[in-house]
Amino acid sequence: MAHFTNWLRRAWLAFAFLFFASWIMRRLAKLMLHEHLDCSLRPRTMLELMQEHGYPANFPASIKALMEAGEVGEASVLYQRHIVGFASESLANYIEAVVNHVLPLMQTEEALFRITEERIEDAVNDGLIGLELRFAPQLHTMKGLTLDQVMHSVICAIDGSPIPVRLVICAQRQENREIARQLVDLAIKYKEHVGVFDLACDEHAYPGVLDWWAEEAQRLAAHGIILTVHLWETEDPTDEDVAMLDRYGITRIGHGFRGNRQGNRWLEVCPTSNVVTGQVDSLEAHPIDDLLRAGKLVTLNTDGTLFTQVQLTDECLNMRRVFRWGRRQFYRVFINALDASSFSPAQKSVMLAKGKRSYGER
């Protein structure tokens, strides 16, 4: 009996410590630069939208039955487990899950508004004081919405945000110059809300910095819009990569954790996502701590909460558990994110003051 009592006491103390650590971490000021809107839907919202718009092919009958019985909470847990299991098998599966399960639900103005509003609400509850939210507007026109309607829906949700939110517009590697031209024009038209232009998707099939994207993206420089590119997530750095980053003045890299040729560029590192997609075997094997210790401009991000199943607070707790990060490391990644971000100088000034108070810095 005494042994059981001691075990129970230790378990209670461990739980209390974790709860307190989570509470403290959630209260720390945090910024995030790399979060895909179409990878961060709430599972419950997805199921509710599926009930309205239809389920994808080969959807688990057991989860559908739970929804029909009104057991939405249990269905949501099982559904997230199901889709994460599938997406975790490979990066190709990850993309397929987005294409078949997510994008069909994001083809109306109402759904886009709701999903954006909910992602911002989750960010606020997680202690974020600023968020860059990335998406590809062209992927939400499959049922007749125009690019302007897509942008209007997302911007309406952002305008009601209690924290600053900037948009990152993504071109995709499998697209072409004409689509990039349209997206650049869109970014310029909505530059009050768009801060960054990105090149995303399958780096293995379409490696490096693609000329057609970069040449169109150059038009954004005069409008103060930052360039970033998904790079060195699945492929190692090459001389050509580095030369093109220099040539086109690209200062941020999405993921960018492979190798040591990042130079003086900000890295949008997403550790748990890299484990989920099989790019590293475990968090313990991830080089993020080595990169930070080497003076690289590391920022910490979740990539997509639907698949990683972590908010930024959870990712911070992972870094604390695995690499023993403390306030000094978290403040460094906060400052890196602030410096790299597309927020206005006035917004950055307010965020810096909040960050200094939060981390006890002068």
Could you describe the 3D structure shown?
The N and C termini lie far apart (52 Å). Strand 5 (226-231), helix 10 and strand 6 form a beta-alpha-beta unit. The protein has 16 helices and 8 strands. The protein is an alpha/beta fold and 362 residues long. The protein has 2 domains: 41-105, no CATH class; 127-359, Alpha-Beta Barrel (TIM Barrel). It is globular, with a radius of gyration of 21 Å. Helices cover 52% and strands 12% of the residues. An 8-stranded parallel sheet has the order 1-2-3-4-5-6-7-8, sandwiched between helices. Mean pLDDT is 93; it is low at 12-20. Helix 1 packs across helix 14, helix 3 (61-68) packs antiparallel against helix 4 (72-87) and helix 6 (109-125) runs parallel beside helix 7 (147-159).
Any descriptors?
362 residues; globular; eight-stranded parallel beta sheet; 16 helices; TIM Barrel; 2 domains; alpha/beta; 12% strand
Look up the CATH topology of the largest domain: TIM Barrel
Overall shape: it is globular
Could you spell the SSE succession in H and E letters? Answer: HEHHHHHEHEHEHEHEEHHEHHHH
What is the level 1 CATH name of the largest domain?
Alpha Beta
Strand content: 5-15%
